[in-house]
Write a structure and sequence with these properties.
The complex is a heterodimer of chains A (93) and B (379). Chain A has 93 residues and is mainly β. Chain A contains no helices and 8 strands. Helix content of chain A is 0%, strand content 67%. The N and C termini of chain A lie close together (12 Å). With 379 residues, chain B is of the alpha/beta class. In chain B, strands 1-2-4-3-5-8-6-7 form an 8-stranded mixed sheet, with helices on both faces. Classes of the chains: A mainly beta (93), B alpha/beta (379).
Chain lengths: 93, 379
């Protein structure tokens, strides 16, 4: 999982989050949550999404990526917290 | 191409009035793989393929749309055509309903389709007209059964002035999809009145993304809808979450990449889907089909058609998991499969092993139509 700061054409400050799911038998979709609020869902195993920096607090906000199967069962989880402009991995499998 | 009908094993939604689902509807014998690249081959039994086949290669002009709607309404008793208002330049705003007129409207779910608020985004109009044409003809018992339980309500050209000029704005130079709070434009006012009149169970607002854009969010197909939040009605969130997840799975089945962005209180309400979703409490979905090489009109329209059919299916039956991709349906007495091994990492992607899950449908919780929220505009 990697992150990259982005300034959009309208001036919005965003964080681009790129993620790869390896393996993943039964993968149906993946969600990105910020502090347990789902911001994004994708049907792709390899994707990037955009998070509004205004929703993120450095050192506090927990970014969670969860892969689900079609029964809404969690297959895998990855969690990060922000440290400045970079991202430090906190938990993971 | 093989078809893959699925079993409907979930319980249907129990809305304000329970649907008389004495017969489970197998809404869509949706087949695997349909729209890869430019080709859209039809396979027998695949309702998506049949509808997409009705899409022309080039967008219809507004005059052609008008002729098409009149002709369809004249030849099918299932179709009703009305004018809900006029554009800045006095063009009619058509609203079409397709249903079985012999069934009471209160027994039906109402799917509302808004297409082409931006005049230079024709795929939504193409999709809406293909859906109208297909269900007006109701070529099989499947479509006839669907129309016993569904009312399709479509505004196929919400911005006829922009469509005629092939530009985003309306005849007054206004972006209609930024006008929903102030509602200064006649097109917006007419749409708001129509939504209030029909009180739909779900609304899809169909758009397109430019082939080349510097906007970070405009690089791939996406949906946007209301996210799950304690600050919002639980029934609304249940609808939007379940339907968006189900659309995502069916998009995979048909080869469409899809992202879903979720909206929350505090987001700008100037856009149609947020105004109707976050503010008025209707389950509303912004559907953005990406343009570009290898994505002709029928492909983009197919994205919208699939979203509409899956949403309709959810309204009638609850979410149904694609069977082909996710294997066999749930069986009574059989425990769910163990979670398969997966890892989220930054490592190089690896080909996933074949899925072996036993599908167990999630409960479908909505028990009544969401009611408009008591919320004042903040934008």
């Amino acid at each position: 999982m990697a992150t990259e700061p982005v300034t959009d054409t309208d001036g919005a400050e965003l964080l681009r989050l790129s993620l790869h799911l390896s393996g993943g038998a039964g993968f149906a979709f993946c969600t990105i949550d910020v502090d347990e609020t789902t911001k994004f869902l994708t049907n792709q195993r390899h994707f990037s999404c955009l998070l509004d920096v205004g929703d993120l607090r450095v050192g506090e906000s927990l970014i969670s990526a969860r892969a689900y199967n079609a029964s809404d069962q969690v297959l895998a989880t990855k969690e990060l917290t922000l440290t400045g402009l970079g991202v430090k991995e906190r938990l993971g499998q | 191409m093989a078809t893959d009908d699925f079993l409907i094993t979930g319980s249907g939604p129990n809305m304000t009035r329970p649907l008389a689902l004495t017969r489970r509807l197998h809404i869509a014998a949706l087949a695997l793989i349909l729209l890869s690249g430019a080709s859209a081959p039809c396979c027998a039994g695949d309702i998506i393929a049949q509808i997409v086949e009705r899409c022309p290669a080039q967008p219809r002009t507004f005059a052609q749309v008008t002729d098409f709607l009149h002709q369809t309404a004249e030849t099918s008793s299932r179709v009703h055509l009305e004018v809900i208002g006029y554009s800045q330049q006095s063009r009619p705003l058509w609203l079409v309903t397709v249903t079985n007129p012999d069934r009471p409207p209160e027994e039906k779910m109402r799917l509302f389709i808004i297409a082409r608020q931006h005049g230079n985004e024709p795929a939504g109009t193409t999709a809406a007209l293909a859906l109208i044409e297909h269900f007006a003809a109701a070529p099989s018992s499947l479509e006839q059964a669907v129309l016993n339980h569904l009312q399709i309500i479509a505004v196929p050209v919400a911005n006829p002035d922009g469509a005629e000029a092939d530009r985003r704005a309306n005849g007054a130079g206004m972006d209609l999809n930024r006008d929903w709070v102030s509602a200064t434009q006649p097109e917006t006012q007419a749409l708001q009145a129509a939504v209030e009149k029909y009180r739909p169970h779900a609304i899809l607002d169909l758009h397109e993304l430019p082939a080349y854009s510097k906007r970070a969010a405009y690089q791939e197909n996406f949906l946007e809808t209301v996210g799950a939040s304690d600050a919002l009605p639980s029934q609304l969130c249940a609808y939007t979450t379940a339907i968006s997840r189900n659309i995502s799975m069916w998009m995979s089945q048909y080869g469409y990449n899809l992202g879903v962005y979720y909206d929350y209180p505090g987001d700008s309400l100037r856009l149609c889907h947020r105004y109707l979703g976050l503010y008025q409490g209707f389950p509303t979905f912004l559907c953005e089909a990406k343009c570009g090489p290898g994505r002709p009109l029928a492909y983009r329209a197919g994205f919208h058609i699939l979203a509409c059919v899956v949403a309709a299916n959810c309204l009638i039956n609850g979410p149904v998991v694609p069977r082909r991709q996710y294997e066999q349906p749930a069986q009574v007495g059989q425990p769910p499969a163990e979670p398969a091994e997966a890892q989220l990492s930054s490592a190089a992607p690896a080909a996933p092993p074949p899925p072996t899950l036993t599908v167990q449908l999630s409960p479908w919780p909505p028990s009544r139509l969401p009611t408009p929220m008591e919320q004042s505009s903040s934008d």
